[in-house]
C-alpha cells in the first residue's frame, strides 16, 4: 500500500533520457492472460482500477481497441475533473496495449508477459516527452498545486495492485 503520495514508490522504475522520461511498474498476477488483457485494454472499464481515470468513451460507438482508434478518457483527482483525447498507438492483442494523450504527448501502456513461475507479469508504463514547459506542467498540475508527477506514479502502482486484488480475490 502506498503511504505517502508525495514520494515516488520504490517499485516504480524511472528511466530518463534527453528526450523523455519513462516510469513503469510491474506485478505478477495469477490469472488467465485473456482475463488480464480484457482488463487493461477495455478503456470503458479502466475506471474500476485506476485511482485517476473514471471512464473512457470510444469516439465511434462501435469502436474496439485498434491502432489509430480515438477515445476520450475522463479523469478526476479530488475536485478536479478533466477529459483527455487519446489515440491508440500500439496494439498486440494479449501482449501490448498503448495510447497517447494528444494534448501533452504522454504515452501510457501495458505489457503482458508470461511469468517464469506461472501467471502473468503485467507492466504499466507512462512516457512523456522532456521539455521544460511540459515538465513544469506535469510536475505541478495536480489539485491545489500537489505534485502531479507523484500522483501519477502512485497511480501506476495502485492500478496494477487493484487488478491483482480483483483477479486473485
From TrEMBL:
What does the record list as coiled-coil region(s)? Answer: none
Supply the name of the protein. Polyketide cyclase / dehydrase and lipid transport
Organism lineage reads as: Bacteria, Bacillati, Actinomycetota, Actinomycetes, Mycobacteriales
The record's section on InterPro entries has: Polyketide_cyclase/dehydratase (IPR019587), START-like_dom_sf (IPR023393)
The protein's matches in Pfam families, at most eight in alphabetical order, are given as: Polyketide_cyc2
Q: Which SUPFAM superfamilies match?
A: Bet v1-like (SSF55961)
Q: Which organism is it from?
A: Mycobacteroides salmoniphilum
